[in-house]
Amino acid sequence: MIPDYGVRMKRAKCHTEILAGINENGMKLTPQRRTIVEILTRDYSHPSAQTVFQAARNSHPKISLSTVYATLHSLKSLKLIRELDFESMDNRYDMNTKHHLHLICNRCGRIDDVADYALVIPKDIEKNTGFKADDYRFELYGLCNRCN
Questions:
Q1: I need a labelling partner for 126 at 20 to 30 A (CA). Which of 40, 50, 55, 85 fits?
Q2: Is residue 113 situated within a structural domain?
């Protein structure tokens, strides 16, 4: 069962938005790219490129890992998905590009989204410190309810 922390976007809407973004930016919508988008929009776990690759091989046995990486890179460049990079585990991909909190389990690597919390507002930080943020992400590390 997938916990609902208030961030879960309607999958059909997100799927449609990503496909529209691909079309609007002149990318060819190949069957492989369509499958990668489907995997991203149905997988709540913030999958890695390797996870996407393994799932895509079910539909496209000859798909290459480089195709998956190139598609993920293009989607990230178009700001249709967000890449979460980590030192201690594979980078993961999030279809929710809005700012939100990630709960990251140190034991199993599970990543959950949370929207209902007080964000640190970059404009307030800039006003108080003079630091202007280009981008930001919020993460809490610990143990998920399964590992705790």
A1: 85
A2: yes
**Amino acid type, 65:** L
- Cβ count near 118 (within 10 Å): 6
Cα gap 32→64, rounded to integer Å: 10
Asked whether the beta carbons of 117 and 81 are under 8 A apart, the reply is no
Q: Specify the 3-state DSSP secondary structure of 147.
A: coil
Q: Residue 105 and residue 92: Cα distance in Å, rounded?
A: 13
User: Tell me: the pLDDT tens digits for 32-63?
Assistant: 999 999 999 988 889 999 999 999 999 999 99
My answer on whether 90 and 133 are in the same domain is no
In a domain, 1, yes or no: no
- Alpha-carbon Rg for the chain, nearest whole angstrom, is 16
Rounded to whole angstroms, what are the CA distances from 115 to 27, 96, 139, 148?
Answer: 31, 11, 12, 22
Bridge partners of residue 114, in order along the sequence: 101
The count of other CB atoms within 10 Å of the CB of residue 129 is 8
Tell me if 41 is assigned to some domain: yes
Q: Is 6 helix (H, G, I), strand (E, B) or coil?
A: coil
Q: Which two tokens stand for residue 53?
A: 């690759």
Instruction: Give the span between the Cα atoms of 24 and 94, in whole angstroms.
Output: 20
